[in-house]
Amino acid sequence: MRERRHDDLERFAHRARRTRQRVAHSSRAMTRSLVALVMALLLASGVARAAPQARVEFWTISLQPFFTGYIQGLINRYEHDHPGVAIRWIDVPAQAIDQKLLAAIAGGVSPDVVNLNTEGALRLAQAHALADLDAAVPPAARARYFPNIWGATRYLGRVYGIPWYVVPNVLAYNRALFRRAGLDPAHPPASEEAFIQAATAIKERTGVYGFMPNVDGIRFLRVFQEDGLPILSPDGHRAVFNGPDHVRVLARYVALFARDVFPRDTLQRGYLGATERYAAGQLAMLTTGPQFLLRVRTDSPDVYRDTAVAPYPLGRGRILDLPTMSLAVPLASRHRPEAVEFALFVTNDPNQLAFCHLVVIFPSTRGAAADPYFTRGGATPEERARVIAARELGSARDLTVAVPHSDDLFRVFREAVERAFFGRMTPQQALDWAVGEWNGKL
Amino acid sequence: MERQAVARSRRAPAIRRILTPYLFLLPALGLLAAFTFYPVALGTVLSLFEYNVIAPPRFAGLANFRALWSDRYFWIALENSVTYLAVVPVLQGCAILLALWVHRSARGLGWLRAAYYLPVVTSIVVVGMLWRWLYDDAGLVNYLLLQLRLLHGPVHWLSDPGIALYAVMFVTLWKGLGYYMVIYLAGLEAIPPTFAEAAAIDGAGPAQQLWRVTLPLLRPSILLATTLSAISALRVFEEVYVMTGGGPIYATYTMFYYMFDQAFGALHLGYAAAIGVVLAAVTIGLSVANFKLLREGGLAYY
Questions:
Q1: Distance from B28 to chain A by nearest Cα, in Å?
Q2: Which of A109-118, A167-176, B287-296 has the weakest average pLDDT?
Q3: Where do the H-state alpha helices sit in A86-191?
């Protein structure tokens, strides 16, 4: 009995020894392969080369996940060509960028290159947060951009953003609803006038809303400009948007609203509400940036299949609004020269052209816009829309109004327009009141 | 030597007795100091400055408050916030009735209590979006009212300047009901059943029992709940932000919303802080009045 146990013990000890050896052996092998892997990674990642001297933080607005590959490709190429620079890319949701940027600047961890829309860039320029890019970008590089687009973020004579891409509105429409209303899907409305008539007809004949015009918030400022009507006097010191033509335009939309030609929540939900309604098949026409069509495609493939795209129906002024995305460099950036250089790289001709091939956006540089992709027409409505919009790049501009105290003035404008829509004031009274308030502050 | 030691050992428990509670309080006090007292003090000081985050603050004295006085949107926001207080009595009345109802122990009431509490733990953003759909022109609320022939056409709950604020207030009411119900339930549990029995023997009917026995004994709970509810009504923001964005025609623009706009939209942080100070003053005034009004009552009082 005893011997038996001894035997067992012996056998157990032996087994344990063997296991230990085996473990030691395999762990040695593992260590070796790990070291090799780490070495390989180190070599591949370029740590063997000089460590980067400048870490440039790059913020974009809502480009993930659709364009992750494109942006990361840009960054990889830039880092490869500039071993001294490391780019740290952060994608921020559109609604959060202002707050996040302020928090970062206040916290002393400002990004170096920030994607901003014109409104955001102007607001931050007014707060003296952005670097003057007229001064930072050499004239030769500046000349590559359309001058009218380069000036999108001009405030008090200085420019605060390098224009990146331009997202003019397009007209997306539901062909099935067009057919139901007896309209020809091959001939979408080409002017503001035809647009309104089509929308009225669709509402009358199908009961479905035809359009949600962009009249919420302060977007009526754009409607005026699209109709060729001025907002400010030429010297910019007086508001002039209460002329008889202005009143007529506003009164027209007020009448449409009163007749329920467009839904009540148009004034509150804006393009988000319009996109939602369109994706639900409850809206026949959508005038919005083409990026919203991506949302329609993911949310409701059925509606997307019935969707065609056409040029934005121009107003009487024949002016196309060119909402411009810019790359700004905060004054708090610690690597300003590197930041400007990276921003110029992102917005150069080949990189913009490649971006435009991925989604319906337009370039801010003449070189990219001269590519046959933008000049040669095509058979599909999308291609025609592209050529028509590209033709406007040299002459149209971002219609964002740049005024001091913009928040106060815009709050007043919004109230005036809504008072007119809800019948609390006549259009004339509303615009007179707003102009009076504006002139008190300009 | 020996006497000293004795004295020390006698003193030690005394010190420990005084210190112990503070040691227990220390973690909470530390957090409060860092994240509440310090920001409150800083915000109050900030209201005397012009500050936009980017440039260093510039002392402005009472300029922010003078500007508030002549700021039309401040008065609009103040008026809306004060109107919002109308939620408080309705909410408390409903919560008390609800608590009385589910206080009885019957089968299935546990489930009911949980159901009433569900909106409280649901994210306000989800609630806001849900109600936006319910309030839609083609939404469930309009559908039901039309089916019941109570309406001729859909009501524009959230886009009619005269209705929107009340529609949002209703959501606050709906969402808060469960929370205050739980407070009142706890208050009701604390009232010994002997009081009700005594009242019944004295010949008091159910209404008299409620009015003369239960409610007076519930007063501490009512004080707590109304104060909390008034504070949250004055600083309402999320519901408005999600459902109406302050519109239409600023009909749902509240103090907190204006503060948010001024701080993060216009970058007038000093001005926003001044709005915050006024809001705090209104809140404190209201709470003090509330305490004066409802202090007497409860088990300890009678």
A1: 26
A2: B287-296
A3: 97-106, 118-126, 133-136, 139-142, 147-150, 175-180
Residue B234 Cα, gap to closest chain A Cα (Å): 22
Report CB contact under 8 Å: B249, A123.
Answer: no
Contact B263, B54 (CB under 8 A): no
In chain A, residues with a C-beta closer than 8 Å to the C-beta of B161 are: 418, 422, 424
Strand-pair partners of A219: none
What is the identity of the amino acid at A425? M
Q: β-strand A158-159 against A170-174: which pairing, if any? A: unpaired
**A89/chain B closest Cα distance in angstroms:** 23
Q: What is the pLDDT of residues B93-133, one digit of tens each?
A: 999 998 988 887 667 777 888 888 888 888 999 999 999 98
Return the residue of B nearest to A282 by Cα: B138
Domains of chain B and CATH, by start: 85-252 (1.10.3720.10)
CB < 8 Å to A419, chain B: 249
Instruction: Name the token pair of B102.
Output: 């589910």
pLDDT at A1: 42
Question: What is the Cα–Cα distance from A412 to A270, expressed in whole angstroms?
Answer: 18
Task: Please check whether residue A411 touches B, CB under 8 A.
Answer: yes
Is the ipTM value over 0.95, yes or no? no
Residue A342 and residue A58 in contact, taking contact as beta carbons nearer than 8 Å:
yes
Tell me the C-alpha distance between A369 and A322, whole Å: 14
Q: Which domains does chain A have, with CATH numbers?
A: 54-167+323-386 (3.40.190.10), 170-321+399-441 (3.40.190.10)
Q: Which helix (H) or strand (E) holds B11?
A: helix B2-32
Hey, are the CB atoms on A127 and B267 less than 8 Å from each other? yes
- Which residue type is seen at A375? T
Please report, as a single letter, which amino acid is at residue A147: P
- CB-based contact B95:B185 (threshold 8 Å): no
**Which residue numbers of B have CB closer than 8 Å to A's CBs?**
52-55, 73, 136-137, 156, 158-161, 244-245, 247-250, 261-262, 264-268
pLDDT at A426: 95
CB proximity A263 to B under 8 Å:
yes
Q: Is the dihedral of CA B48, B49, B53, B56 positive or negative?
A: negative
A197 closest CA partner among A180, A210, A184 = A210
Token pair 């009700």 in the structure block, residue: B196
- The whole-number average pLDDT for the span A110-132 is 92
* Token pair of A296 as six digits: 């329609």
How far is it, in rounded angstroms, from Cα A407 to Cα B36? 29
For residue A307, the cross-strand partners are A174
Give me the sheet containing A285-288, strands edge to edge.
Answer: A285-288, A170-174, A307-311
